[in-house]
Amino acid sequence: MSSLSPSKRLSSQTRLSLRSIGAQKVLSDVFAQTAADGAAVGFVLAHLPRDTGTILWAQDRLSEKEAGQPYMAGIGPERSVLRVNVSRPSDVLVAMEDALRCKAMTAVIGEIWGDPPSLDFTATKRLALRAEANGVPCWLIRRAGAPNLSAARNRWRVGSLPSAAHPHDPQAPGDPRWQVELFRSRYAQPGTWVVRYDRASDRLDFSAPHVDGAVEKDHGADRQRAAR
Amino acid sequence: MERTGNAPPDDLPVAMVAEGQHGPVIHDTNRAARLAGVRPGTRVTDTKAVLPDLQTEYADIAGDIQMMERLVFWVRRWCPWSVQDGPNGLVLDTTGSDHLWGGEAAMLADMEAAFSALGLTAQIAMAPTWGAAWALARYGTARSICLEGQIEQTLAPLCVDALRLNNGTVLLLRRLGLKTIGALADIPRLSLTRRFVKAQLYDNPVLRLDQATGRIAEPVSSPDAAPAFRAYARLPEPIMDPTPFMPDLCHDLCTQMEEQGYGCRTLCLTVYHTDGDTHRIDVAMSVHSRDPDHLLYLFRDKLDAINPGYGFDLITLEAGATEQMEVVQTRLEGGADEAVDLSRLVDRLTARFGTRAVSRPALRQSHVPERAQRWVTAMAEASVNVEAVAPERPIGLLYTPEEVRVLYAVPKGPPVQFIWRRQTHKVTRYAGPERIAPEWWHDKPGTRLRDYFKVEDHVGRRFWLYREGLHGDGRGGDPRWFVHGMFA
């Protein structure tokens, strides 16, 4: 392994600050690598506090159909969610903007399918400025969309990776792991990481990806394949 | 006919006609025809033989009924409490409203002018009781006003028809020689009561007399409760757009509520059209409020829905579901309350997208996943029933489970390969099964049990997969597989 990738260097230097990128109260957009994947939502939820305040969750009709509606038993029944389900993406943007005006919100999450014409640079700029003015973190989850021009301060791309080993059951999936790429950011250098979400302690562990393709120690998938 | 503009002159006898059992019969007449002896209910052919120059026109009975139903609400421009009385009457409870119009006489004159502007002839009277007002409007002088304590004197010269009795009873009273209400009232009460002891209200002159004089209460039950707070803009000319008047109306209403320490949860904006129509817009709030800016915001996109027609000349804004509201200062420096902020957001979103679009989760005790969580409207009170769910659950749930095609099934555990949404997924790891039996007290008989698995595919996507039923459970064919949710 002659050349360390820039992301690897960055990750070792700024391991702590990586978590604080996501905790900033700005507009971030998250692209789901595949449409029907819980990774993007899981990544966003991992950044939000569990027990205080209300989250506004706006979905357009296609997102709800394709990716499902939020399920409190999995998200955490102690969280307070206000859900807005509307048919048009432009209505999602209106609801998000309205909610960002309200300082009592813990976070505003919007899910938009595809590349609607209403989601242009101006619309994202409005969201970004309002989120910064009121100090409410705003997450825009994009599915089946292209990363067009956007005023989002952090832009992530999130996909699933085989999960970490289950502590008690070798054939069961354990803590979720995601391939997370920060491809544009105002506050940090872009890079790619493997993120493991530790459910027990509710924290995210960023680590560098295995660039040379070596099999990770706790990669349980192959063992399982052999066992069957 | 006058409304359509082709009314004949008043001195020509005109009759409205309806189809009867044996050909057309007279439905109603104008004054000239009534003086000429035309009575409702007689056949048109008979009447024409007596009065050859009688003009006839078919009556629009269904249209009249609709018109009356609209007029009930239209007359609330004068007072907040009105109800329809029979096929051609309206009762208004004007208690406390007359001073707004400059006294009772001025109010009656204004009513008559407004009705004649609609092309309707109204006989109006004012009395302390419903019965007395009914009698005076139909059998008294025009715009007669009966004061408190003078009911008996005012009603005495009227004929007994004015007591709202059936025709048979009226005929009986006439035959007894009791032609006026005064004559009836002079009879000793005991003998009258004994004579009509078994009669129903509609045949009982004693009860009717008591109602007219106020000895028996006869309240007006209005279709809606009267609003306690009301602001209105009365306009000299009909206008098409209420928007410029809204800030003043909201401000006025909020000032009224603030003086008495009230807040409202519903608002009703009503515009009164010049052609006798009304249009109302309702908005609701999740908590009590009396902030004019907030109330105004809720009407923002709704005013376009008003069809102006020929314009409207009166706009009222009424506050409903009012309740005592205390101003609470939560912070020392006097900042805004966060809970109020949140409830306002709910109001704004609901006013814009509708009650169904804005919701909160309500968790219930059930093992069936789709039954454990229900979405209730955010306007309702938030229910706090947080319970810990022991097994792991997905973060996203599909509204309807989607069936997958199994490519490679194994006898135990989930399928090794399946196709969902035209993509092949190879299962590398799984956890489960978790068996959820149907709830017999909810489900139809024959509902199959479900075995849930958390599976992870070759890419790392984690799904919640279930098998519906078992082989040979006697409830259908082979078990089918469904995707129900996604894990993080």
Structural features, described:
By secondary structure, chain A is an alpha/beta fold. Chain A is 30% helix and 29% strand. Chain A has eight helices and ten strands. A nine-stranded mixed sheet of chain A has the order 4-2-5-6-1-7-8-9-10, sandwiched between helices. Chain A is globular and about 45 Å long. Chain A starts with 5 loop residues before the first helix and ends with a helix. The N terminus of chain A is likely disordered. Chain B is an alpha+beta fold and 488 residues long. In chain B, the strands form six sheets. Chain B has a six-stranded antiparallel barrel. In chain B, strand 16 and strand 17 form a beta hairpin. The N and C termini of chain B lie far apart (73 Å). Classes of the chains: A alpha/beta (228), B alpha+beta (488). At the A-B interface, helix 3, helix 4, strand 3, helix 5 and strand 4 of A face helix 13, strand 13, strand 15, strand 17 and strand 18 of B. Strand 4 of chain A pairs antiparallel with strand 13 of chain B.
In summary, what is this structure?
Chain A contains eight helices and ten strands. With 228 residues, chain A is an alpha/beta fold. In chain A, strands 4-2-5-6-1-7-8-9-10 form a nine-stranded mixed sheet, with helices on both faces.
